[in-house]
Structures are given as C-alpha cells and as structure tokens.
Specification:
Layout lengths: L5 E7 L4 E6 H4 L5 H4 L5 E8 L5 E7 L12
Antiparallel strand pairs: 1-2, 1-3, 3-4
C-alpha cells in the first residue's frame, strides 16, 4: 500500500499569494495562528489515493465573520 501524500496549500485570498507547507507541520497547530494574519485562509488537504487520483478537501479555518470565499 502506497503512503498517502498530504500537503496543505495556504491560500491568502486578500493577498492572492499561495504557499505550500507540509501537512505534518500544520495539523498539530491551532487555527488561531492563521486568524491573526487578518485575511481569509483556505486550506487544501490533497491526498493521492491508491489509484493515483487527486482528492481535495476544502477547509475554511477562519470564523465565518465575512462572506465565505468560493474557489472553483
């Protein structure tokens, strides 16, 4: 069984910049750290399944204080 590849893309919608960090580095940290950045951040957890297809999960860690940003 192949090990799943997990990454998180942190997208800063207001700055329109993107960075990729390791999933293990982020899953143990609290989301309040990212709320301090002052912009909505959307996390993408990407996993490759056994067939090699890419599965994406969209997680909004910010509180719903503004209109949610929809990315397609």
């Amino acid at each position: 069984m192949k090990k799943f590849l997990e990454q998180i893309r942190i997208k800063e919608a207001s700055l329109k910049s993107e960075s990729v960090i390791d999933y293990e580095d982020i899953k143990n940290k609290e989301s309040t750290k990212y709320e301090k950045l002052g912009c909505q951040i959307v996390l993408y957890i990407e996993k490759k399944d056994e067939l090699g297809k890419l599965k994406t999960k969209n997680l909004d860690i910010n509180k719903q204080r503004d209109k949610p940003t929809q990315l397609q």
